[in-house]
Amino acid sequence: MREAEVRALLLDPTTKTPVLLLKDRHSTKAMPIWIGEQEAMSIAIELQGHTFPRPLSHDLMKELLNTLGGNLERAVITSVKDDTYYASLVVRDAAGATRDIDARPSDAVALALRTQAPIFIEEAVFEKSAIESPFVEEEQFEEFVEKDLKLDEIRRLAAKDS
Q1: S-S: 60 plus which of 52, 55, 129, 139, CB 3.0-4.6 Å?
Q2: How far apart are CA 131 and CA 160, in angstroms?
């Protein structure tokens, strides 16, 4: 498994769909996942450190886990089938048992960010979907995302490999 971090939220210029960019912590590769607008908003709110007077869905999920004595051990992007990504939440319950709960990747990432749980990508998924990025330094990454990331090209290459 590859440990990943959220590196950017982008907007696909063709489809106007949000794209979550997960970067492998130990390489220059990154993996884009097209996600829904509501989930993108939830992730963006957490990344920016904003809070609301009433809990949003992912805040509620965090509170439920805490109240019931559980905790999110990790979020894992587990597979990709027909251009749809799948994930699981690895949750430790109050009795100490670990359970895998099926989730959409965007929900898994949103909850992981709120609980400071690590995000992982299964090796087979990463190998199929990751792109080699021309950045080594943080500044190069930021420039790559802002100026050079061609989501249309990534989508075309992903479709070609399917």
Answers
A1: 55
A2: 14
- pTM (global) more than 0.85: no
Total domains in the fold of the chain: 1
Strands 84-92 and 131-132: what pairing?
unpaired
For the chain, the residue count is 162
Alpha-carbon dihedral 14, 112, 86, 43, rounded to 10 degrees: -20
Q: Are 58 and 52 in contact (CB under 8 A)?
A: no
At residue 160, φ and ψ (nearest 5 deg) are -65, -35
Interatomic CA distance for residues 132 and 105, integer angstroms: 21
Q: Residue 54 sits in a domain of what CATH number?
A: 3.10.690.10
- The whole-chain average pLDDT of the chain stands at 86
55-68 per-residue burial string, b: 16 or more CB within 10 A, e: under 16: ebebbebbeebeee
**In a 3-state reduction of DSSP, which class is residue 69?**
coil
Q: What is the pLDDT of residue 141?
A: 52
Range of the domain at 57: 2-161
Instruction: Check whether 70 has a pLDDT greater than 50.
Output: yes
